[in-house]
Design goal:
236 residues; two-stranded antiparallel sheet
Length: 236
């Protein structure tokens, strides 16, 4: 009989996966671009720009406004954004429905959990603390915690090392192509939520499963457990 490794850990992306954070990112971006007299993108437009960290978010906003490329200006705006957002990461953000009960059950079952996000580390901790989520996670790795970030697999692998779990005993849950590429390169199965931040349709990202509500996550996890033989897919 085949012997399969156990499922011992789950890594989560943050923005667009656990938390609707776009309203706070937008509010901070409005403040920062006002320093230039440049209009910020709308909230729906900004949702399509999230996923590669604050510096890239600002660059995309400036590009959308037709502002010329200026690395020194970008760095100044990034530092302003980081200071403002770190000080107030949770004015408008909220946890997606179903997240807290699911995380509570996963923790009670002995599954170790970590956050692997391209958001800078300091505001990540601030947001998790403000929303009461920090206690669920044994490791948090931000976009500035390492020399690399998603989609580099080392970002996920470093998070797993902090949890002391090998990739074959873990699943990644995210919302974007960065999450899928990272998980695949790290040797992990991956679940994508359909309600996050992606310009590519979620079911075209190449995940093992796509879920439409966080309540569906436990069934999706069970379906991907090593050695499982699901009768049918909960999402396609």
């Amino acid at each position: 009989m085949a012997s399969f490794p156990p499922l011992r850990a789950i890594l989560f992306d943050l923005d667009g996966t656990l938390v609707e954070s776009a309203p706070d990112l937008h509010a901070t971006l409005v403040e920062v671009t006002a320093e230039l007299g440049v209009a910020a993108p709308s909230l729906p437009e900004l949702r399509a720009m999230i996923g590669d960290g604050a510096r890239v978010l600002i660059r995309r906003a400036l590009d959308a406004a037709g502002h010329p490329d200026d690395p020194e200006l970008l760095e100044r705006l990034f530092q302003s954004f980081l200071a403002r957002y770190t000080a107030n990461p949770c004015r408008h953000s909220f946890i997606y429905p179903g997240v807290v009960p699911v995380l509570t059950d996963l923790k009670a079952s002995g599954i170790r959990m970590g956050v692997c996000t391209n958001k800078p580390y300091a505001p990540t901790l601030g947001l998790l603390d403000a929303l009461g989520l920090a206690g669920f996670f044994g490791a948090v790795v931000g976009g500035d915690s390492l020399p690399v970030r998603k989609p580099d697999p080392e970002h996920a692998l470093a998070t797993l090392r902090a949890l002391e779990i090998p990739p074959e005993e873990a699943i990644f849950v995210g919302d974007s192509t960065n999450d899928v590429v990272t998980a695949r390169a790290a040797g992990m199965k991956v679940i994508v939520v359909s309600f996050g931040y992606t310009t590519i349709p979620p079911r075209e990202l190449g995940a093992d499963l796509v879920i439409d509500h966080f309540d569906d996550l436990p069934a999706a996890i069970d379906q991907l457990r090593p050695g499982s033989r699901p009768a049918g897919r909960i999402a396609s």
